[in-house]
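Supplementary notes for students who missed Thursday's class. We covered one full example, reproduced here. Read the sequence, then the structure, then the short commentary at the end.
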Amino acid sequence: IANHKRIFLAVPPLAEREKGFIQWLAKVTQMARELSSGIYLYSNPETQKAIHTFLDQQKLNTQDITAPEP
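Structure (token representation):
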């Protein structure tokens, strides 16, 4: 039995400006849903904001994403 509790995601600064960022983020969130696991996000505040904006636009649950305070 596979047991996945969370996905640790380290996102570099300005990753939201990279080509394919939205597709990558969509795949990561889909994988988290399929595994029924949360995402632990490490990134700078601007990238976190871009990720949360994407999640809001896609009407995805942002409660499963945890980000440590800077």
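Commentary. The helical segments are 21-35, 45-57. The longest strand covers residues 6-10. If anything here is unclear, bring it to office hours.
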